[in-house]
Amino acid sequence: MMKVKEVADLVGVSVRALHHYDEIGLLSPDTITESGYRLYSNENLSTLQQILFFKELDFPLKKIKEIISSPSFNQEEALSMHRKLLLEKRNRLDAMIRTIDKTISFTKGEIQMTNKEKFEGFDFSQNPYEQEARERWGDEAVDQSKVKLGKMSTEKQAAMGEKMNEIYRNLAGFRQESPASPDAQAAIKEWYDLLNKMGNYSLEAFKGLGQMYVDDERFTKNIDQFGEGLAAFMRDAMAVYADTNK
């Protein structure tokens, strides 16, 4: 048996995360002593390993709980699936790294690159948040988004990704201002308009998406790469925009 701090140190996750897994019924220790110590068994550690494999593949905790709690869940089958998906992820990352290396040589004038080569490794068909989006806002907006993206050329999809990054960077420059400021609202309107080029998001869905940026740590981590606190700022700005334009 291992105490929660020992498990945290062994695995590299925080004690807080383990407490959270217990609170939501995802991973509860086999034993809790009279003095309140959580004691994790080897079986608990095997379950934790499964959870972390799923997290690495961007599964939400709610979905992980649903999967591993299913009577039909098979650990060996799950491990085989993890291996297959991680290999696919590694292949995509390797392709993107090769593209980066080529692009570095291209910018130095050492090689020539075709437009197609500039976007090798990008794959917008892989969306780890698709199921969550379907659950929150229904199939229609997601299907419309996939249809629109699927009709775009690789170059246009990449341009769309760069436009998203440009808006993130622009908003990051305003995050010390009020989310209701004219500059922030002009930038968040660009974000709303861009999302509606890919799908059909109501003002209420737009506001809900902003909340998700803060509630889901994966969104927060990705968005805050452009500036600490950007996810929370976008949530507030999106709420102001939605409420103002109803």
UniProtKB/TrEMBL annotation:
Keywords: Activator, DNA-binding, Transcription, Transcription regulation. InterPro entries: DNA-bd_dom_put_sf, MerR-type_HTH_dom, MerR_fam, TipA-like_antibiotic-bd, TipAS_dom. PROSITE patterns: HTH_MERR_2. Residues 1-70 form the HTH merR-type domain. Signal peptide: none annotated. The keyword Metal-binding does not apply. Transmembrane segments: none annotated. Coiled coil: none annotated. GO terms for molecular function: DNA binding. The keyword Transmembrane helix does not apply. PANTHER family: HTH-TYPE TRANSCRIPTIONAL ACTIVATOR MTA (PTHR30204:SF90), REDOX-CYCLING DRUG-SENSING TRANSCRIPTIONAL ACTIVATOR SOXR (PTHR30204). This is DNA-binding transcriptional MerR regulator. It comes from Peribacillus huizhouensis.
